[in-house]
Design a protein that fits this description.
seven-stranded parallel beta sheet, 6 helices
Length: about 450
């Protein structure tokens, strides 16, 4: 109806108020002079709304559904939604929000779904999901298609699956890294909706002038050569281990079976189910290796989770990495010795004791350096090999060095971004690393 203001003559029994697709640019304080105690749904999308008063919702405190999407909001002030303690769904996608006060969503004790996609947000709102500060009932947070370049990866990885299942952050200009791959790969293996529903939209930006995008789940195959993620619990003999039944729904009834599909008996002293649903094992023996299964049942979902346990002898498993390092060092040393021997005994003879050459009294000692061997003037040579100034040519011994490789699990060799410049006897290396850029894609509700 091309309204520029909210109608004032609203009946007090109004339950649903749809003002979308109008021209209401400002939602002022007390836009309704009477308290609408029955209003549970307010729709203000597509209005060009740019201003929200801090007292805009004092007379509509029973709202459960609020749609402010597709407007021109740029910031969310402190405690802006605090009166809406009954609000369950808040739609703020497709605005221009760049600043959000950390207390903007305080007081929303009943909020279940929050949509913030397609804005200009550059910081992930960790306070909404982190323990002690999170909204207790929140089960969906969508911050996809924003300008977030970094995520609090350790904190997100530590959250339970029933929270992570509803965290959507795809289509952001995230920097490519192996920790990011590890997070998305683990969520994919657990079949969390946030990873599996938008698998192709989980991309990251490769540092460099071109700022190319790459699928996060491809980082284990190209570019960074990240380690493959496996759901595997490793432990050693005589240790104790706790297996989590990390379900996608909270407060489910959980039961465990041991390897070989053996039911967990109450009298089992080595395997005990805890009150939180986890399974405590120990002291471990080699026979405890195998696949443990957790069956979880809930009101609307049943899950079956498998956890593979590998028990190692601590002496054998602990020394594996040291053995690899020692082997690599030994091979390098042997290769160096072989190269020195080849140089000393199989290169063309230039010494004074060679057949057909006389020994000069003015012979000086040879000096051997780490990378260059220089022969001093031991005798006079009238051949073409003699150099200007009466000296003899020197020989460079170049021990082959391994090319820069894509190191294991996350150290980057930015091929094409590294150049070398020689000036006199000094060698300078310059590196360049461009920042990533943002990318947007449409949000699916």
């Amino acid at each position: 109806m091309n309204l520029t203001n909210v109608p004032t003559a609203l009946p007090p029994y109004t339950a649903v108020l749809d003002l979308s697709l109008n021209h209401i640019s400002r939602l002022r304080a007390y836009w309704t002079p009477v308290r609408l105690s029955r209003l549970h749904s307010l729709l203000l999308s597509n209005n060009g709304l740019t201003f929200l008063s801090s007292e805009a919702f004092v007379n509509v405190t029973k709202l459960r559904y609020l749609d402010l999407s597709s407007n021109g909001l740029r910031q969310l002030d402190e405690y802006i939604f605090e009166p809406l303690e009954h609000l369950e769904v808040l739609l703020l996608f497709n605005n221009r929000i760049a600043q959000m006060d950390r207390t903007a969503f305080s007081g929303l004790s009943s909020l279940q779904r929050l949509y913030l996609s397609q804005n200009q947000i550059s910081r992930f709102p960790l306070e909404l999901v982190k323990e002690r500060s999170r909204l207790q009932t929140l089960r969906l947070l969508d911050v996809s298609s924003n300008r977030i370049k970094e995520l609090p990866l350790p904190e997100l990885l530590a959250l339970p699956a029933w929270i992570n299942d509803g965290l959507y952050f795809h289509s952001n200009p995230l920097s490519c890294s192996c920790p990011l791959y590890d997070l998305v790969a683990r969520w994919s293996l657990k079949d969390l909706s946030s990873a599996s529903d938008f698998r192709d939209s989980h991309t990251c930006v490769i540092p460099g002038p071109r700022k190319d995008k790459l699928g996060v789940l491809d980082l284990d195959k190209v570019y960074l050569n990240c380690s493959e993620v496996k759901i595997l619990k490793e432990a050693y003999l005589e240790q104790f281990l706790v297996l989590d039944c990390d379900t996608k729904q909270r407060d489910m009834v959980k039961t465990w079976t041991l390897p070989g599909n053996v039911s967990l008996s109450p009298g089992n002293e080595k395997a005990l189910q805890r009150e939180d649903g986890g399974l405590r094992l120990g002291p471990l023996t080699a026979e405890d290796s195998g696949v443990y299964t957790c069956y979880a049942t809930g009101d609307s979902l049943n899950e079956t989770l498998h956890v593979t346990v590998a028990v190692f002898n601590s002496t054998t498993a602990g020394g594996l990495e040291n053995l690899k390092t020692a082997y690599t060092t030994l091979v390098a040393c042997l290769f160096t010795v072989v190269m020195v021997v080849i140089y000393l005994y199989f290169t063309p003879c230039r010494c004074a004791c060679c057949p057909g050459q006389s020994l000069e009294k003015s012979e000086t000692k040879e000096s051997l350096h780490s990378s260059t061997v220089s022969l001093s003037q031991a005798h006079r040579d009238t051949g073409p090999e003699r150099v200007a100034g009466g000296g003899f040519p020197y020989r460079h011994v170049a021990f082959p060095g391994a090319k820069d490789q894509l190191e294991h699990n996350g150290r980057l060799n930015p091929i094409g971004e590294e150049d070398e410049e020689w000036q006199g006897d000094e060698r300078e290396r310059r590196r360049s690393d461009a920042e990533s850029v943002s990318s947007d894609s449409p949000m699916v509700v």
